[in-house]
Amino acid sequence: MRETHTAADRDGRGTPDTTGTAGIAAGLGGLLGPLRRAVLRATRNAEGLPDLPEAQIELLRTLSTSPEGLSPGTVAARLRMAPSTVSNLVRTMSAERLVERVRPDHDQRTVVLTASREALELLSRYDRASTAALARVVDDLPAADRRALAQALPALDRLVAALETADTTANGTPAA
After folding, report:
1. Model confidence over 72-120: pLDDT tens digits?
2. DSSP calls for 86-129
3. Domain range holding 56?
4. Residue 5 domain-assigned (yes or no)
5. CATH value at residue 106
6. Where does the record place Basic and acidic residues bias (predicted)?
């Protein structure tokens, strides 16, 4: 089993202390990055998918929610990224034919971003492969662990919402 706590996080018996708020926060903080990377690695390996950086996948997910396209500024706000970061991602992804820049008929001075058909198919493959990889691993866990994961899902969903609300309150950026 992975060790996710430092010696300072241990109780007097040498076991991680995850009962208090700080222990839970430290445990989540220590697990989320490695979990995200492990899922992405397993997903890519299972289907031979290209090594898209996570930021590109997030951008594609955002664009996939709006078939009519989104302005670069809207994408930056939703992803909480600097506009220059979005611009760099779009430049790279346009060259790879994953993102299309479209000039709307009603205003040729502006541009909206859309995910290409190829990108949407790739995103669908990522989602299917990710679900399958997670299902295989979860199925191998003890029943008690599967129940604990199922019971944790609503709390994790609320945690995401609370973090987005806190971020919005702190900097005035609308939640994605």
Report:
1. 999 999 999 999 999 999 999 999 999 999 988 888 888 999 999 999 9
2. HHHHHHHHHHTTSEEEE--TT-TT--EEEE-HHHHHHHHHHHHH
3. 52-140
4. no
5. 1.10.10.10
6. 1-14
Q: Which residue has the tokens 């987005």?
A: 164
3-state secondary structure of 70: strand
Position 56: which residue type?
Q
Query: Between β-strands 99-102 and 112-115, what pairing exists: parallel, antiparallel or unpaired?
Result: antiparallel
Residue 146 lies in a domain: no
Q: How many CB atoms lie within 10 A of CB 48?
A: 8
Instruction: Give the CA-trace dihedral at 51, 122, 126, 115, to 10 degrees.
Output: 100
pLDDT score recorded for residue 167: 72
Is residue 114 in some structural domain? yes
- Residue 51: predicted pLDDT: 86
Number of folded domains that form the chain: 1
Percent of the residues in the chain that have a pLDDT greater than 70, as a whole number: 85
Asked, for residue 125, whether it belongs to a domain, the answer is yes
| Tokens 């702190």, residue located | 170
C-alpha distances (whole Å) from 92 to each of 45, 69, 160 are: 23, 18, 29
Query: How many CA atoms are closer than 13 Å to the CA of 123, on its beta-carbon side?
Result: 20
Assigned token pair, 174: 């609308």
